[in-house]
Amino acid sequence: MNSRQQAILQYVNDIRRVSVADLARNTGVSEVTIRQDLNLLEKRNYLKRIHGYAVALESDDVDARMMINFTLKQKLAAYAASLVNDGETIFIENGSTNALLARYLAERKRVTLVTVSTYIAHLLKETDCDVILMGGLYQKRSETMVGPLTRQCIQQVYFNKAFLGIDGFHPETGFTGRDMMRADIANTVLAKGVENIVLTDSSKFGQINPNPLQPTHAINRVITDYRLSDEYRNHLKMMNIQLDIVYEEQGTL
């Protein structure tokens, strides 16, 4: 994927539905070139095309999700890594920002990583970091382990902190996930009573998904970016959740 195609994917995921003509104007290339780019991106399941438009695709593919807000996710991951101390055992759930966090920790800290993500385990195969991969039912698309065996494994393993992803947050529903089985695994982690940290970009706020992540009071901290609205900032503070805002220049509030 070249830089223009990355820019197209970013724009489509930000706007959700964009015409070929608008993409041509924004990138400064012909509509023919845009259509060729969209054909490639659709073939790789990064987006879909409908009657002259490119439409964002909700995908469980970690590589596809990694391309959305990639630079910002790197900054979120770097800040999250600063909260981890050498010698700790850290649980990291699946997801693109969590994958970047895992790589950052493996390359810079002396830690043991516990994960349900085969994607993360594979990402760290060339590092010196010890990785404990939970067993269970393999979800091929998301490259993660789920089910009763995974839940049992998590219950038997100790870790100091847990970093979790979300698919949505709304004041009426709290934190939610798209997939029932992955939400069940996140809830198993929340039930252990360790320090639970949600790591996500702000695009997830305002979205509602069918599977609640509970108990909400078990979530101690949220790390997200500067685009989070004041409404959601205030609501998280009312829930007594520590909020860390990461800015483009890597500072936090």
Automatic annotation (TrEMBL):
Instruction: List the molecular function annotations (GO) for this entry.
Output: DNA binding; DNA-binding transcription factor activity
Q: Which SUPFAM superfamilies match?
A: NagB/RpiA/CoA transferase-like (SSF100950), Winged helix' DNA-binding domain (SSF46785)
Q: Which residues form a coiled coil?
A: none
Q: Which InterPro entries match?
A: Carb_Metab_HTH_regulators (IPR050313), DeoR-like_C (IPR014036), DeoR_HTH (IPR001034), NagB/RpiA_transferase-like (IPR037171), Tscrpt_reg_HTH_DeoR_CS (IPR018356), WH-like_DNA-bd_sf (IPR036388), WH_DNA-bd_sf (IPR036390)
Which Gene3D superfamilies does the entry mention?
A: 3.40.50.1360, Winged helix-like DNA-binding domain superfamily/Winged helix DNA-binding domain (1.10.10.10)
Q: Which PROSITE patterns match?
A: HTH_DEOR_1 (PS00894), HTH_DEOR_2 (PS51000)
Q: Which PANTHER family match?
A: DEOR FAMILY REGULATORY PROTEIN, HTH-TYPE TRANSCRIPTIONAL REGULATOR SRLR-RELATED
Q: What is this protein called?
A: DeoR faimly transcriptional regulator
Taxonomic source organism = Hafnia alvei FB1
